[in-house]
Design brief:
Blueprint (H helix, E strand, L loop, with lengths): L1 E5 L6 H12 L2 E4 H14 L5 H7 L2 E3 L10 E3 L2 E2 L7 H10 L3 H14 L5 E5 L2 H5 L5 E6 L2 H12 L3 H17 L12 E4 L5 H16 L2
Parallel strand pairs: 1-6, 1-7, 2-6, 7-8
Antiparallel strand pairs: 3-4, 4-5
Helix pairs in contact: 1-9, 2-3, 2-4, 2-5, 3-5, 7-8
Length: about 210
């Protein structure tokens, strides 16, 4: 079974997807880790073409069911912490707008999801990467709530984070290739007033109902 969870930054995708994978015993794919890895490489090698970096890099993800966090190895180097730095996140949003980067990572994601049970999260899983997913969920939340959550994670100023998220949302929604939007058959869920546990419970119920069809 494949569950696709999409949505904007700060909507709770990673937290919910990880917890859902643990609860269901599924493997977990954070597609953002791939884009962040390209971004990290681009920052380290500013004169290289991001698409070539995406094609050449070797990514290993710790997708074991029950893993508390998804470890990321980039060409054998542990970059789990490095790809979460704010400057890498900002660069990831920019490289994600490059259709040649998206094409290179599309094949890597599809290869990972080719077998087994997965919870995959990102911004275009249900629309582009896996339009055949058994269940598609689009998580969202109000801008200020998303900024509050992200600021809490980063120890940053909420107003500054709000401005960053607004710019990132605009880039994600307006890019020509794979813009951020819910799949036509996705279940949309506003998480603004819900705890992570409540969201996980709702999506788990949807997954079990889908599996029982």
């Amino acid at each position: 079974m494949l569950i696709a969870i999409d949505g904007p930054a700060g909507a709770g995708k990673s937290t919910v997807a990880r917890a859902l994978a643990r609860e269901l015993g599924f493997s977990y794919l954070d597609s953002g880790a791939l884009y962040r890895s390209v971004a990290l490489r681009a920052l380290e090698r500013p004169h290289a073409a991001p698409a070539q970096l995406a094609r050449d890099m070797h990514i290993e993800l710790d997708a074991r069911p029950g893993a508390p966090e998804q470890g990321v190895l980039l060409d054998g180097r542990d970059v789990t912490a490095a790809i979460r730095e704010p400057e890498v996140a900002a660069e990831a949003s920019r490289v994600a707008a490059d259709p040649t980067v998206r094409a290179a990572l599309l094949e890597k994601q599809r290869a990972l999801l080719a077998g087994g049970d997965w919870v995959a999260e990102g911004r275009d899983i249900g629309t582009v990467v896996a339009p055949h997913a058994d269940l598609k969920v689009f998580l969202t939340a109000g801008p200020r709530e998303r900024a509050r959550r992200r600021a809490l994670e980063q120890g940053a100023d909420p107003d500054a984070v709000l401005a960053e998220l607004a710019a990132r949302d605009e880039r994600d929604r307006s890019r020509e290739h794979a813009p951020l939007r819910p799949a036509p058959d996705a279940v949309e869920l506003d998480t603004s007033l819900l705890t992570a546990a409540e969201v996980v419970a709702r999506v788990a119920a949807l997954a079990r109902a889908s599996a029982g069809r």
